[in-house]
Design brief:
The chain is an alpha+beta fold. The protein has helices spanning 8-48, 52-60, 75-88, 123-131, 173-213, 215-228, 245-300, 306-337, 350-367, 387-404, 460-470; strands spanning 93-98, 103-105, 139-141, 149-159, 162-169, 346-349, 371-376, 382-385, 410-417, 421-428, 448-450, 453-456, 476-479, 485-492. It starts with 7 loop residues before the first helix and ends in a 5-residue tail after the last strand.
């Protein structure tokens, strides 16, 4: 089943690629081996015959000189030398050179042709050969075939006042032609047989290799198929020990992330239903009050006293305020949730902002008979944040504290400076929050209760949490039942450049 998960097209591509690599490698190996074998043969032949020219001079030039007193070449002597040499080795060609490298005579050349007089052998390889005593692999000019260089043996002579070189080509033109014909034939036979064997061997080796190399890939594809078919818990076992450890671990992490996202979506869907239900309830309540009192005013307008009419209108006005506030919170939270609000950070004095907020809430605190105080050190430094968002966060915390603090209670705003941040805390003397419920109060529209007493409701704290997160900080709560609650967060100190 797992082998079928990889497409035939993919397997064919792998196999063809494998065969192409092997064929190219085989051809490259054959040419390399051929070239090395040629060099090996030439170097071996040259070393074996390195002293051939010197031996020829020592044997043939004792009683006779290759060039007479008139400067003419002793053709009879060279004819005997060439015949003796060719009787031993038909690949050898013997040349007589003057001290400038110009060819003076050779039985393999047509000396009646004008171009023969211009034939010349470069002296650099000759001098190198002589200086190294024939050691090493050195090639020189081939007078009969100037386009190719060949291995040689050479020796310097001086006889009868004449100087020059005996230059022997060890692999002459006839040898090279015969060798090339045989080599081409051998190469064709070797190429055809080798190619056929290579293809068969490569096909078998390729199939086995592809099966082995794609084992981990098939496991990944199989896992993906299982996940696609609904088995969300299936993972690749020992992913870190596979040949494709990076891909396998990435797949497992991706599957975990997808599963986590699915769970989050399910959770968000549940919260969405809860949010809609809560919003519907909270919107319905003020709307029902407004509608009921308006209907009462319409039906009994002539029977109502001025005081009753005033009470009805005040009730309608309060419900409108409540409805307006709820809609504003929903709009604000939706923008924060959708990341549509970008903090406009700037340095400002948090102490001045806290004083302004305290003054704004003094009337409401006195009306509820709650003591409102501000505690902070001197010299609080500038903070770097969005002043309007921070003001909104503190206001929400103040609203929450005054809402749940009973008459005669106290709300304290504390500001403390630390090395790199300033801590802002709002403490109330309300009923407190159960430890189990403290993590829930920052969820949107989450309501918690202890008996009949509400501990938290609405979007206020959820908005605070979003605002603080936009400033790369977090909101903390410290509370125990019947001991009040303290909400705190930190803002970074402004660092002057």
């Amino acid at each position: 089943m797992r082998s079928s998960l990889l497409s035939e097209k993919f397997v064919v591509k792998l196999l063809l690629s494998f065969l192409a690599i092997l064929i190219l490698a085989g051809v490259g190996y054959m040419f390399t081996a051929l070239n090395l074998s040629n060099n090996y043969f030439y170097e071996t032949t040259q070393r074996l015959h390195a002293n051939l020219a010197q031996d020829l001079i020592d044997e043939k030039f004792v009683d006779e000189s290759p060039i007479d007193s008139l400067g003419n070449v002793n053709k009879a002597l060279f004819g005997d030398i060439m015949h003796d040499m060719m009787a031993v080795n038909r690949a050898i060609e013997v040349y007589l050179l003057d001290d400038t490298g110009t060819v003076q005579y050779s039985v393999v050349l047509d000396h009646d042709a004008p171009e023969t007089k211009e034939k010349k052998v470069a002296l650099e390889p000759i001098n190198e050969f002589i200086n190294n005593n024939g050691e090493g692999f050195i090639v020189g000019d081939n007078p009969k075939n100037p386009e190719k260089q060949s291995i040689f043996s050479v020796a310097r002579f001086e006889k009868g006042g004449k100087k020059g070189y005996v230059y022997i080509v060890l692999a002459g033109e006839e040898y090279v032609m015969t060798r090339d014909e045989l080599l081409n034939s051998y190469f064709m036979r070797l190429g055809l047989r080798g190619s056929l064997l290579t293809l068969i061997f490569a096909a078998l080796l390729g199939l086995v290799s592809i099966w082995y190399l794609t084992k981990n890939l098939r496991e990944i594809v199989f896992a993906a198929k299982r996940f696609q078919q609904g088995d969300l818990e299936y993972r690749i076992a020992n992913a870190q020990n596979t040949d494709l450890a990076g891909v396998a671990k990435t797949y497992n992490e991706m599957a975990d992330t997808i599963l986590s996202d699915i769970e989050k979506i399910k959770s968000l869907e549940g919260l969405r239903r809860e949010l809609i239900a809560n919003i519907s309830h909270d919107l319905r309540t003020p709307l029902s009050i407004i509608q009921g009192y308006i209907e009462t005013l319409q039906m009994k307008d002539s029977k109502l006293t001025a005081q009753q009419r005033e009470e009805y209108l005040n009730t309608i006005n309060k419900s409108c305020d409540r409805l307006s506030k709820l809609i504003a919170q929903l709009f604000e939270y939706s923008k924060l949730e959708a990341n549509q609000i970008e903090p406009q950070k700037e340095p400002f004095l948090i102490a001045d902002l806290a004083n302004d907020i305290r003054r704004n809430y003094e009337v409401l605190a006195k009306h509820k008979q709650i003591k409102l105080s501000l505690e902070m050190e001197k010299g609080i430094p500038l903070v770097f944040a969005d002043i309007s968002l921070v003001e909104r966060a503190i206001q929400n915390l103040m609203d929450n504290a005054l809402k749940f603090t009973p008459e005669g209670g106290e709300v304290i705003v504390k500001i403390n400076a630390h090395d790199e941040h300033v801590e802002i805390a709002v403490k109330d003397s309300g009923p407190g929050i159960n430890t189990a419920n403290q993590a829930l109060i920052f969820e949107r529209y989450r309501q918690t209760k202890t008996g009949e007493q509400k501990e938290g409701a609405g979007l206020g704290l959820a908005i605070v949490k979003k605002i603080i997160e936009l400033h790369n900080s977090s909101i903390k709560v410290l509370s125990k039942p019947n001991e009040g609650a303290t909400f705190s967060f930190s803002l970074p100190v402004y660092q002057m450049a």
